[in-house]
Automatic annotation (TrEMBL):
SUPFAM superfamilies: Leukotriene A4 hydrolase N-terminal domain, Metalloproteases ('zincins'), catalytic domain. It comes from the Bacteria. It catalyses: Release of an N-terminal amino acid, Xaa-|-Yaa- from a peptide, amide or arylamide. Xaa is preferably Ala, but may be most amino acids including Pro (slow action). When a terminal hydrophobic residue is followed by a prolyl residue, the two may be released as an intact Xaa-Pro dipeptide. Its cofactor is Zn(2+). PANTHER family: LEUKOTRIENE A-4 HYDROLASE (PTHR45726). It comes from Terrabacter carboxydivorans. Its main location: cytoplasm. This is Aminopeptidase N. It is an enzyme of class 3 (hydrolase).
Amino acid sequence: MSGILAPQVHALTDTYTPDRGDPAYVVTHYDLDLDYKVSTNRLGGRAVLDVTVLEDVRRLVIDLVGLRVLKVAVGGTPAKWTHRGPRVVVTPPVPLPRGTRTSVAITYAGTPGPARTPWGEVGWEELTEGALVAAQPNGAPTWFPCNDHPRHKATYRIAFESDSPYDVVASGTLVETRVRGSRTRRVFEQQVPMATYLATVHVGRYVRRTLPSAEVPVTVLLPATHERPVMHDLARLPEMTSLFGTLFGPYPFADYTVVVTADDLEIPLEAHALATFGPNWLDGRRRHERLVAHELAHQWFGNSLTPEAWSDIWLNEGFACYAEWLWAEHADGVPAATSASTHWALLSRLPQDLVLGDPGPDLMFDDRVYKRGALTLHALRLEVGDTAFFGLLRDWTATHRHGSVSTDDLVDLVDVHVRRSHPRSRARADAAAARARDLLEQWLWGTDLPRLEPAAGAS
Ligand SMILES: [Zn+2]
């Protein structure tokens, strides 16, 4: 396995999702072989997890919600298990010493549905005709057994058999399609490390369209009846990918898929190299184009660079929100500075009790995380100047491509870039670095809304 997957020891599960994940092991690869019947919403199959054990263990805890385990084997030998709530506790036939690499095979079945969480229902969702997975933050175990933590990235192979009239797209590249009678089996391979929450599958009666794009192939799956409004509202996606490629660095995946469901959806959501919209967000009047930009930006910020922990959620949402403002500047001539001052004014009238760098589970998807996160980036841009700021963004996405990131990683990289912009004076470099650090400290760890103004020393 590559260095990206080198296991690190972490003592705790994620404090925002304490009933998910087992820090005693990592999964480096998931092999899912699944069978789904649309009319009964019946899902069954087998998951094989390639596991590396990080400490001496007598048991492994695996996350699985709402589905029934039928059989477990560890390293090919049947193993005992208990399943309570979201946790499957597997007892291997022999204790596993630290460093053991083995496989855990789980046969399971049931009628999947969303998990009820503090953030609403997440995970598997049955549609009027078909199904989807929208798993952020902890819905992945509603459709496959996993070690559910954003830091645990793995490769995947997903074989998915379903009723032939339905189109299916899952995370990864389609490598095989086989029609047998009324059933079609498709195999998807994901060779880029992916977090569990970003794994997805979509089943529906869709037609496929492609967008002419110079750089990134874009495929749209949509209900035939919605073609005109949807394609109108997505028409500027190629231009968006090209703008973001210039500002953020190369698009991190081979392609991009947008799935538009027939049912209205509460919010759009990102997955790995994919985004999902309800038709209510793409109604032919381009009223929600900022969200098209937002979900696309997550491919860099969230999906390629995935938070180490949910407390770092602003690294997803602040960046994606700032990308909305950059798009508005490019496409509609609304300067990012105008978006920033508008949202600064709105935020200043809201309660100032949120710590951006660790908002707590209840506030992790609070709109203030998005807006204060974007404002933090704008404040940093004003402080360091455009050249250093966009150089930093591109370095950020290149350095941590397909990896995991923390707020500390960003603060460290800011320091490097600020110093680099003062190559001839150590004293000026130190002073500029201290100013940038203080600025980030206030925005990330304070609660009061800092003023938004260019620093005296900024270029
Ligand atoms: Zn988002």
